[in-house]
Amino acid sequence: MKRIIGLILPLLMLFLGCKDSKTDKSKKEPEKPERITVTKPTVSFTFDDGNTSDLVGFPFEEWNQMILAHLEKENLKAVFFVTGNNKSDEKGQFLLNSWNDRGHRIANHSFSHPNFNSEKNSSLVFERELKKTDAVISKFSNSIKLFRFPYLKEGRNTAKVDSIRNVLANYEYRNGYVTIDASDWYIDQRLKKRIKEIGLERTEIEKFRDFYVEHLLERANYYEKLSYEINGRHIPHTLLLHHNLSSALFLGDLIKTFKEKGWAVTNADEAYEDPVFEKIPKSDFAGESIIYALAKQSGEYDLTLRYPAEDSRYEKGKMDQLGL
Fold this sequence. Notes:
By secondary structure, the protein is α/β, with parallel strands linked by helices. It has helices at residues 2-26, 60-73, 90-100, 123-137, 158-170, 184-198, 205-231, 245-260, 268-271, 290-298, 313-322; strands spanning 42-49, 79-82, 105-108, 143-147, 174-175, 236-242, 264-265. Strands 1, 2, 3, 4, 5, 6 and 7 form a seven-stranded parallel beta sheet that branches.
């Protein structure tokens, strides 16, 4: 009898162990993406804001779906940094669900998009903004604790930057750094203005598309070169785009051109696992692209870095000359 019991007990314990193991595996927790090996210029796509308006003849649901279709065609997953102030109504919830259900990560871009370089926007304001949008997005299965600063402004002095960084840490958030910054928003503004003035049929969409693609690729090559000099290797870049009409119309062309020019494309949440995003610039140099901040911090690029890093003023003359 003792021998039988001695045989049964281990089997019983093994059975119970297997049962517990199955139970643990049934708990759906977001899988942490593996760090990717980068051997050549590589880019991922992130989007800011979250507009729910109809745009110059394009219904919101239509142009939003166009962006998602471009990403789905390339089997790419983005990180969508959303403002919270227009996401609780029916259209806002539709927007968040449409991205979440397709496997894109939903991240925090503040509630009302304030500029934290402004003196009136303290760390207390930052905390309220963070919490209000977190309450909106945290219920979604693909939400992720990344925060992107509006205008990429993290505070004008070290004390403020440090206090804001403490708030981020207290709420277990990381900075959703951009590596490639650009002015796609300005191209989008001028495109919509032109369509309003003369109509879609008379607007030379192809010229706007070509300028959009050329501009973003030029900025990508600039930040890739700068990043390689600083880091001594290729990194998976996070490109800042906006949730707007130009993304809806031209994202597919942009991805195609990146590939034709020898770039690899990857998922944005995987890109954020690269060690470069663990390099937190000193408080004196916070803001803009992380590549810009690290270059500024090095002291080796003071004669070549412009400020603001990206702005409409750099593209206005070019677009004026081209009649865009």
